[in-house]
Amino acid sequence: MINVIAQFETTLASGISKTATTGILLSNVTGDNDGATVPNGDYGIVIDEENSKREYAVITISGYNFTFVKRGLSMIDGDTVKTGNQFDHRKGAVIKMTTHPLVTLMVKA
């Protein structure tokens, strides 16, 4: 099951190619005022939400490191991988937790 975090935003510590299977986050601190870190696990994310290279993915986080479970997800069904939705992302690209694809999959169930 994909975890949901109310507020989390960070950036990529280094760039990734559109075929990359792993990456590194610059930070793993949540929006909580006490500076809690994101628990290890699976999360829905959006990379570069504010530009034409927006990419939805599911990742597994372990500390600052992450592994893609699925990337380039359909913006319609939240599950289908579309290579046309996979992009190179530069160092500093914004990463945000998102309820998509989890909510999309739950609504369709």
Features:
109 residues, 6 strands, mainly beta
Give the structure's gist in a few sentences.
With 109 residues, the chain is mainly β. It has one helix at residues 102-108, and strands spanning 9-11, 22-24, 41-47, 55-62, 65-71, 94-97.
Rg, alpha carbons: 13 Å
Kindly state the mean pLDDT as a whole number? 91
Strand order of the largest sheet: 1-6-3-4-5-2
- Please provide the count of β strands: 6
Individual helix count: 1
* Sequence of secondary-structure elements: EEEEEEH
Quaternary state of this entry equals single chain
Can you walk through the features of this model?
By secondary structure, the protein is mainly beta. Helix content is 6%, strand content 29%. It is built from one helix and six strands. A six-stranded antiparallel beta sheet has the order 1-6-3-4-5-2, with no helix packed on it.
Please outline the helices and strands.
Layout (H helix, E strand, L loop, with lengths): L8 E3 L10 E3 L16 E7 L7 E8 L2 E7 L22 E4 L4 H7 L1
Antiparallel strand pairs: 1-6, 2-5, 3-4, 3-6, 4-5
